[in-house]
Amino acid sequence: MLVFLLAGTLTAATPLLLAAVGELIVERSGILNLSIEGMMALGAVVGFATIIATGSHWLALFSGGLAGVALAALFAAVVLLALGNQVATGIAVGILGLGLSGVIGIPYEGMTVAPMKRLPIPFLSDIPIIGPGLFNHSLLVYLAPLLALTIWWMLRSTKVGLVIRAVGEAPESAHAIGYSVLATRFLTITLGGFLAGLAGAFISTVSATLWSDGMIAGRGWIVVALVVFAAWRVDRLVIGAWLFGLATIAELLVQGMGISVPSQLLTSIPYIATIIAISILSMNGRKMRLNAPASLGRTYNSTA
User: Which of 31, 75, 130, 191 has its CA 20 to 30 A from that of 259?
Assistant: First the structure.
């Protein structure tokens, strides 16, 4: 049971962490992207269709990421060039992604694929309980925390990170000293879209290994809440993703223990945890406002 708990938590947390890291970068540049759910859903079905056609997990993951980029580019065009409202545009693009995933996925409904090959870490995977729980996973499970660490270093210690943060805090000032606000935000949005699509493809081809319409099941909204829960800090984001992964796997754990609890209540555990976490954090609303990028959600007109 402990092995299942550890391994299941890491697997469930990986897509949340991937998509949340992408959303954090987008929000640090001043853009609020609420279309994560649709990007993950489209990435999931495109990744699944790819692995059915090619048999390659890595090609499936990459194609899922590209599907997320396509939706992200549409979102970026509306909010950056047409100056559309970020909240309304994000919801609309997210619904579009969900609709497309349902249509594309009709031929694949209920189909399954072989799981991705695991890469046990030598010596560490042999440790009782901890070894098979933490060190016997597919490669992407190991890479997700490393990606978060890389993004933390990039935002904190590089010129690229400084530009992203400057654009998110004061876009007019960043533009005045020669940085392109639109180009910076477009790149962060597409990167966030790629990671969201990659996360969706991970769910359908690595963790669940099947396609079912609606399988993303609100994870995109958990990702958005997770960034707020982490107060736009990468270190808290990693911890939060693992906690939400634990909440997700709790449903299967309780069922495995034979405890009689309504399945609907168990399924709602991650979302209840999200509400509780956001409520607790909101008690210190002033601190949250200080941590949030100053221009988050605000339309920027480069011609003004």
Answer: 130
